[in-house]
């Protein structure tokens, strides 16, 4: 397929489908995902090879844009209101779901414990690419501001993946090598990853705040600097296995604290860029879905995924137990923590590429998780966000 035609299908098709789904009171991103699924299904064999090489970077770039916008909208007072719940939401739901799925997959599919563990934690990761835009939209409309509900979900979702990917990596190492692996050392990688992600974010955030306050550069130049620096942070972060996306949010947070006028300008500009970036992101996520592969997992796969979500929901309720959140707000957090897409799309084929006999089934489960949870999660957030969250500032 010609790149120009593909560009038209992705951007115009994604935009048009988003408009159509909005007309029937569903989130626009759902239409974008469905367009991606259709493109992948009908044109998958004819897509240019260059797309495979660039799609990973394009998805990462879109995620960086929305996380910068998220960071630029989180003030210190809002973060304080989020408090302990935001911290607990980073690891309790993921741990509950990953552990439960390990047992469920061992029982239902006969996976050995290590393979069940890597599959369970791959499936357990929540998708910031789906959750963050939805929370920012609710935040912009004033929903859940009193108890900082969107911020709790934003903060949790940005770190949840660190835990899921770390446990996935531990189990993958155990499954693919005969060498002795120190699990305690691997677990130590979690706080190390968070710290090495945060520190550059703090340093760069403070420097950029100082620079933007003392310079008279145009806002478009500030956008250029912030975006390219954030991309560099993520690229380096991937090399050293740090939670670089958390650092990206930290940069935005510090800009709002130290250079508020620049942060407000930048937030507006990134909102405009996000209009295009979201279409590319969600269409590409849809294109990574292979319906035929998902069908291989069948009804049993759906039972496993649903079982994992039940335990994730229990984890969310425990993480918010001692907060000031109302019952309705806690239920909304359960709904908001369901969508999966980004990590499953990225890691679903890793086990197959590593030569594990269960690799094809693991990929099928990853695809099924995206198809099942992303649309339902988006619809749930869209419908219940305005019903369960109070409107108005603290």
Model description:
With 394 residues, the chain is mainly α. The chain has one domain (33-39, 52-388): Na+/H+ antiporter like fold (Up-down Bundle), CATH 1.20.1530. The chain has 17 helices and no strands. The chain has helices at residues 3-23, 28-43, 49-71, 76-88, 92-109, 113-124, 128-140, 149-176, 183-214, 219-240, 244-258, 260-287, 291-319, 327-336, 342-347, 350-353, 359-388. α7 packs antiparallel against α8. The longest helix has 32 residues, at 183-214. The termini are far apart. The model has no long low-confidence stretch (mean pLDDT 84).
Structural class: mainly alpha
Instruction: State the shape.
Output: globular
Radius of gyration: 20 Å
Instruction: Count every helix, treating DSSP H or I runs of 4 or more residues as helices.
Output: 17
What is the string of SSEs from the N terminus onward?
HHHHHHHHHHHHHHHHH
- Mean residue pLDDT: 84
What's the CATH class label?
Mainly Alpha
Provide a concise account of the structure shown.
Keywords: Antiport, Ion transport, Membrane, Transmembrane, Transmembrane helix, Transport. With 394 residues, the chain is mainly alpha-helical. It is built from 17 helices and no strands.
């Amino acid at each position: 397929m010609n790149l120009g035609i593909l560009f038209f299908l992705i951007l115009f098709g994604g935009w048009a489908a988003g408009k159509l789904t909005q007309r029937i009171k569903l989130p626009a991103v759902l239409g974008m995902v469905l367009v991606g699924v259709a493109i992948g299904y009908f044109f998958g064999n004819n897509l240019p090879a260059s797309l495979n090489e660039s799609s990973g970077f394009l998805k990462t770039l879109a995620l960086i844009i929305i996380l910068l916008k998220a960071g630029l909208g989180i003030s210190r007072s809002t973060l304080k209101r989020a408090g302990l719940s935001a911290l607990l939401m980073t690891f309790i739901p993921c741990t509950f779901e990953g552990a439960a799925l390990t047992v469920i997959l061992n029982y239902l599919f006969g996976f050995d414990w290590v393979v069940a563990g890597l599959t369970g934690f791959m499936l357990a990761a929540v998708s910031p690419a789906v959750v963050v835009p939805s929370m920012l939209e609710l935040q912009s409309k004033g929903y859940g501001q009193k108890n900082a509900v969107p911020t709790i979900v934003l903060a949790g979702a940005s770190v949840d993946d660190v835990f899921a990917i770390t446990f996935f990596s531990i189990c993958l190492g155990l499954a693919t090598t005969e060498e002795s692996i120190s699990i305690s050392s691997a677990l130590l990688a979690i706080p190390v990853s968070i710290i090495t992600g945060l520190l550059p974010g703090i340093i760069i955030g403070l420097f950029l705040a100082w620079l933007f306050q003392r310079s008279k550069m145009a806002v478009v130049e500030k956008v250029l600097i912030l975006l390219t620096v954030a991309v560099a942070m993520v690229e380096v972060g991937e090399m050293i296995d740090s939670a670089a996306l958390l650092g990206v949010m930290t940069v935005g947070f510090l800009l709002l604290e130290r250079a508020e006028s620049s942060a407000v300008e930048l937030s507006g500009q990134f909102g405009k860029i996000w209009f295009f970036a979201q279409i590319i992101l969600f269409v590409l996520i849809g294109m990574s879905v292979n319906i035929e592969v998902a069908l291989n997992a069948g009804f049993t796969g759906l039972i496993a995924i649903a079982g994992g979500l039940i335990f994730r929901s229990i984890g969310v309720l425990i993480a918010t137990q001692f907060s000031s959140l109302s019952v309705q707000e806690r239920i909304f957090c359960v709904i908001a923590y369901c969508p999966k897409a980004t990590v499953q799309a990225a890691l679903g084929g890793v086990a197959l590429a590593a030569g594990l006999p269960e690799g094809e089934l693991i990929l099928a489960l990853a695809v099924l998780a995206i198809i099942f949870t992303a649309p339902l999660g988006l619809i749930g957030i869209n419908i219940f966000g305005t019903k369960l969250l109070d409107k108005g500032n603290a």
